[in-house]
Amino acid sequence: MRETQYDQLQEKLYYEKLENGLQIYIMPKPEFNQAFATFSTKYGSIDREFVVPGQNEPVIVPDGIAHFLEHKMFEEEEGDVFQDFAKYGASANAFTSFDMTTYLFSATDHLKENLETLLDFVQRPYLTDENVEKEKGIIGQEIQMYDDNPDWRSYFGVLQGLFKNHPIRIDIAGTIESIAKITKETLMDCYKTFYHPSNMLLFLVGPFEPEETVKLVADNQARKKISPQGEIKRIFPEEPTEAAHPRMEVKLSVSIPRCLFGFKEVNPGVSGRDLLLRELATAVGFDTLFSRSADLFNRLFNEGLIDKGFSWEYEVSEAYGFSVIGGNTKDPDRLMTIINEELAKVRQNGVAKESFETSRKKLIGKFLEGMDSPRYIARNFTSYRFKDADFFDSIKVLEELTHEQVNQRMAEHFEPKAQTVSLVLPNS
Amino acid sequence: MRETQYDQLQEKLYYEKLENGLQIYIMPKPEFNQAFATFSTKYGSIDREFVVPGQNEPVIVPDGIAHFLEHKMFEEEEGDVFQDFAKYGASANAFTSFDMTTYLFSATDHLKENLETLLDFVQRPYLTDENVEKEKGIIGQEIQMYDDNPDWRSYFGVLQGLFKNHPIRIDIAGTIESIAKITKETLMDCYKTFYHPSNMLLFLVGPFEPEETVKLVADNQARKKISPQGEIKRIFPEEPTEAAHPRMEVKLSVSIPRCLFGFKEVNPGVSGRDLLLRELATAVGFDTLFSRSADLFNRLFNEGLIDKGFSWEYEVSEAYGFSVIGGNTKDPDRLMTIINEELAKVRQNGVAKESFETSRKKLIGKFLEGMDSPRYIARNFTSYRFKDADFFDSIKVLEELTHEQVNQRMAEHFEPKAQTVSLVLPNS
């Protein structure tokens, strides 16, 4: 077992890799009541084309299958996973993102029993023709519900405006048409490929005892006799550097237009500490422009062009990178004119030195706040780990971050040709 | 300063009441990075009729004025409150509910400076005819946005279905028409009445040193020379025991109907430990019926009648009490038929003993988990304190809770005459 000490955070992280390839990370937090356990596979909605280990030809699977599989994992031949967790006072959940699927529980007691339940249900698929058909109805309803949601529609409008070919432009749940094509067999192909322990990571935070816990997991895995598996080859299409469409529009019954805009990252392809640096430099830059204490935010707010819900996010990985910024506005055109004038100035002159310092400190504070929350730690740790980055290095990266780096980042990111604007407009 | 020790939680709570009436509660959490400070007034959307201390006649103020005042408090004669907080690495926010308005910051550093900023901006209204007019546009936009939201509409559909007269049936933000009537003068009347320190509470959780912090607050308040104020007389209308309307319906452009139902509490009028007992007995009962491990939930889920978003809430106070339960469904009528059959059985036979035990333990776990989160603690503590209840007693109340009490609670609450169903249906 490897032990890493983070002096500044006063935290320790334990690491073990089992024979079947499963990686285990444990951050003991004995002073916490809550334990949080996540069992994740590096498998999300963008993994639509890949070579099944042992085969030669790539396969293309129906859109939305990773999310579909997540749903099906909760079904058991006998009984119900939620009841198994409830019996020992735990709550369980799961979510599927662009590039990972996570199963989790939180509990204050009976950590061993709950951990066994977590490992066992995720490693025991129960698929029948009937239960796959039934799920299509349930997920179809979920898809329709998101279709009603103006925020979700404007968000995917940005991704569809930015990306021409990359599967990140496709809704995580797929479409009614794509999920109709899902069968028990394709689900099992995906399961065998991506739910192999060598593609998975177990992260535990809370009052866990490291030695004992690793032994419990190792014994559980040894009983299952899972043979090793080669690397998974994922195939992604070529993606041009400019945005696919400068403007996307849809009409829904809303009273106030939603206006989101975003930029495609011209050079993604980062991982490890470079990825952390790129995300944090972008975050600091965005905070100087779009947080509630920013001059630009206040100018727009005082003109009544934006409201408190104005927000932003940024994500980058090996295969894609993008920002999504915006909210409600009574006048999308005027809003975008002012913002684009300001972003052109930022590309030229950078952000104010004083704002940079304030935002950098604010982000250090936010990170430290997050370290109080098992949920926050668990969610971020695995996502960065799958990108070869150590989330706990964030504070060091922020401390070493320079004004110059943020200015460079903003100049690089705010490329007009890589921009799209996505509008949801009232339909009357 | 009074000190209370909660042995089971291994927490201490410090209390002081200042001469001007302000109550201060501090829960030191030296092991936490994050500090969370809330400054709250017992004043929310339901306080529409009251006697201003020193006057004789009651006044009725426009709907939505508490929320309007919350918005205006962030405006300063010079500069911007968010910048003052950002300078010291803090994030600020505020919210208005039915019966309280809370201003808060979270920070990991410069707690003294941020605390002074919080106290000063909330105690320094800056209202002009111009800035009040301008705010009507901003809030009007917010109201329209909520009007688009099927979840919000179905939620207030329940409250309007349940309550005939009580102002809880009115949207917290008011309406475009009601906020048009708000003036600088009515805002100041409300401010003087409800923002007097004797109607307010400061709650701090995180790495605060109690003695030092109380001295800082006392000095800050002494400088402001605020004279004492008599009690505020609030006036609420009579409310019948049965629901105002058995069914509420609205059409919006949704693909899946929303179906929420709820019950009006026939006998609210509880406070203190009785209130805590009533809320927790209801919560345990609802968990046995509507959580993801419940038989009823699973039956409805497997029939495709509900999805994962099915949820419930319950609230009771001196003046009102109600539940709101439900989510999306493809068949509201069939859903309500099955649920009402089941609830009739529960009134007769109670909930299963084993489910009661599981849910009770689960809620104890949830409470302990929450104790790890300054945000969760702060949000709940003040709300209960304003109802003379001690949130930290929750665990004791849960431990002493009996199966019989939960069964009685369910029999009392699920009164068919006090039920309403609120539907948001597709408009095509």
From TrEMBL, chains A, B:
<protein>
    <submittedName>
        <fullName>EF-P 5-aminopentanol modification-associated protein YfmH</fullName>
    </submittedName>
</protein>
<dbReference type="InterPro" id="IPR050361">
    <property type="entry name" value="MPP/UQCRC_Complex"/>
</dbReference>
<feature type="domain" description="Peptidase M16 C-terminal">
    <location>
        <begin position="181"/>
        <end position="363"/>
    </location>
</feature>
<dbReference type="InterPro" id="IPR011765">
    <property type="entry name" value="Pept_M16_N"/>
</dbReference>
<dbReference type="InterPro" id="IPR011249">
    <property type="entry name" value="Metalloenz_LuxS/M16"/>
</dbReference>
<dbReference type="InterPro" id="IPR007863">
    <property type="entry name" value="Peptidase_M16_C"/>
</dbReference>
<dbReference type="Pfam" id="PF05193">
    <property type="entry name" value="Peptidase_M16_C"/>
</dbReference>
<dbReference type="Pfam" id="PF00675">
    <property type="entry name" value="Peptidase_M16"/>
</dbReference>
<feature type="domain" description="Peptidase M16 N-terminal">
    <location>
        <begin position="64"/>
        <end position="152"/>
    </location>
</feature>
